[in-house]
Amino acid sequence: MASWPTSPNLIGKPTRRIDGPLKSQGRAKYAYDIVRPGMLYGSVLRSPHPHARVVAIDLAEAQRAPGVRAAIPVVDLSNPEPLTHKVLFQGQEVAAVAADTEEQAIDAVRMIAIQYEVLPHLATVEQGLRPEAPRVFPDGNVREANVLEEGTVDAALASAAHVVEGFYSTQVVTHTSLETHGLVCEWDGDNVTAFCSTQAVHSMRDGLARGLEIPQANIRVICEYMGGGFGSKLGTDNTDIICAKLAKQAGRPVKLMLDRKEEHLATGNRPSAYARVKAGLDAGGKIAVWDCETWGTGGAGSGAGFPLPYNVYEIPNRRRRHKDVYINAGPQRAMRAPGHPQGCFITETVIDELADRARLDPLELRLRNLPAAAPDLMWIAYFPMGAEKIGWSRRHPFGDPTPGPIKRGLGCAANRWGGGGSRRTQGQCEIFPDGGVIMRIGTQDIGTGTRTLVKIVTAETFGLPLDAVTAEIGDTRYPFAPGSGGSVTVGSVTPTVRVTCENALAALAEKVAPALGVEPANVTASNGRVHAKDDPSKGMSWKDACKQLGTASITVDGQWEQGLSSVGTSGVQFADVEVDIETGVTRVRKIVCVQDCGLIMDRLTAESQCYGGITMGIGFAMFEHRLLDRVTGQMVNPNMEFYGLPGLSDMPEIDVTLIDQPERGVVGLGEPPTISTAAAIANAVSNAIGARIRHLPVTPDNVLTALEQQRAGGTL
Amino acid sequence: MAPNDDFSVSRRDFFKSAGVGGLATGLLSQVELRAQTGVREVGPGAVQIQLTLNGQRHTLSVEPRVTLLDAVRTRLNMTGVKRVCDRGTCGACTMMLDGRTVYACSILAIEAQGKAIRTVESLGTEAAPHPVQEAFCEHDALMCGFCTPGFVMATTALLERTPTPTPDEARHALDGNICRCGTYKKVLEAALATKGVRRG
Known about the structure:
The complex is a heterodimer of chains A (716) and B (200). By secondary structure, chain A is an alpha+beta fold.
């Protein structure tokens, strides 16, 4: 049974990212940077219409254009099923070309002649919900879920001491990975190698096999470095298949990288969330009841699920009716903690409203309604820690009484996430006679530091310095590891590496034990030596030990084991903001984050996950919004200047406290820190201005509207 | 075409020629127009240009519409700087032109002739990284790394001008670069902690 070392040399220390030099020197090769001999550039013609039927595709002129080597239709008009001839969102793929240069490919795409029959579209959830709306989706525009009910909601509402009622919403945001989706495909006979920007090399391979109808064994997917995915790069896209088909037709490698507009339109987004909530507090300050009607859109034919009430506080009576509303917009994809930031924002806002209504400190209300502490439910301990750090004791009640236009406020929110590890994960370790070590595992580093963690655990297990071992990842030729989504990478990969390296050490011990004159079971490795466990003086250097292998290296497999990782994290965040109530402009002054994540592998990269999650949370809270024109259905900000990502000058002071729980083993950290940032900020803004923020993002016009409504009669 | 020809078009020349063109349509031939404005027309086909990149002269053939970024990335295969927004917002393509940071996606390659162009590849080597690169690694000022070369260039340009910037100066200088992973806090730390950048 594998276990983690009790006094590690590397695990839990701040270790520099091993690919830092390559990345900072511009030498790391991303899919975008791959160049293959004779490589062509692909470009895709996309529907300008949010809803249309493709009637005819004429590639002839494009095929004759300078430099063009391949041209294919994507919408297959020979398909007898007429539904497949439809495009359901602006930016859906219709046809594609490959040419010698990128400029030629873009020119040729313009020469493709498409006849569309433009159909009525739905650009907003309001349009989709109207009974007289055109039926745009074959099974209807709205998918209604079963009513979920626990307890006795109506009775609890009738007997509640305080009831608040409100309408809340969060906007659609896009992943906006800096490296757009894309790949380079190169065929060799029936085999294809794909250099992809992906979060999952193995599922990319399987998706390519399905899409191209070729054996999985004929496909190799490589992803050495990738420029961000945040959930949008977990599957195989139409454009991946298109790229392979273009390369096949041209008989040359093809690079197909999306441009920024395509990325916004067609590679996923976080669905919107809307909720009408009625919640009640009993006379003892316990949240007694939660009744809500919710809806949202995940675009064309995609759901908009989010947890509500967010499952942190104990609420005995709850009821929910949910509808997914389909509109003609790019379909949603998992985005960093899918559903959680939306559910957290709405829930934590209602909690603050209940506290204000009952004239209770919102922190006190939270503490009264949290579950008892457990290793994965530690909010009751973390809230007071965060409160101390943000200076909660100086918090004023609803509305900053200070004269002047600049108002300050504090807010807080909790988060939770699962994580865990996949038991299907496998690894392979090779020890060479000259002492070299290669650890191979088919995971990928999406910017979280996975490659560094593989190296840390390998070196730790063999008692070697970090640079004495090599980590090989990002290739389907290496043993299976799951996609990097759901914060499962660290919980899948590091236990597997540990088990594999322990197996390899046991195999080495078999060879070395005779020379040491001890039983193999009594052999271990530490401080660059292989030695007897009970007598460290009986040993030899790592290099000498490996010489015992003779001429053949040993290659040992390993499989994920239970007991080295856990499921479940908890954390809290606090925000300190200032708002100019004349202009509506909000500045976040400080975010405090208290977050656990089990056994920390690399303190430096773990902290970075928190900073990163908070930064993305600030974008969601304050700036980002996929805006569709309600008349044309076109995205009006499919770029980076009007989409609105936070920059360095938008960054507040960020105070991160990581809680070590080494006894729990590793737990993923990619998602939890981004969940509660927006909720904490919005609560802080409400606390500052004395008017309730119920809609994200907290733009100046949202702030001024909230103030206006407050003056016009009050929202409390 | 002589390789040393300068095709650069200033904004002033552009407005001058555009204005004349607008007024004189049908009155003056293209040839007469060119003679009067002094603006020479090139393209739309490929033209030969010379770029001085990291101290080395490169002769290449590009259409006038090709950006400096694309020329460097796809013609010279120097892929250190990245293409992200492709319209002058994110800074991932930051290069230095005669010592000033520019968005290489928003400059035509033909306009960059005769200027000293520096890319991230000019900073340090594998064995001896530039102090800014060293600081980025030490402070974990990079995650996926796609914005990193641009940030490294912007930071280097700042420190070559202002070796000990205040936090506000650094924030201002680096505000033209976007990171999605959320490295800003660490980037600022790295920029403020870097020592030993020489005036460029």
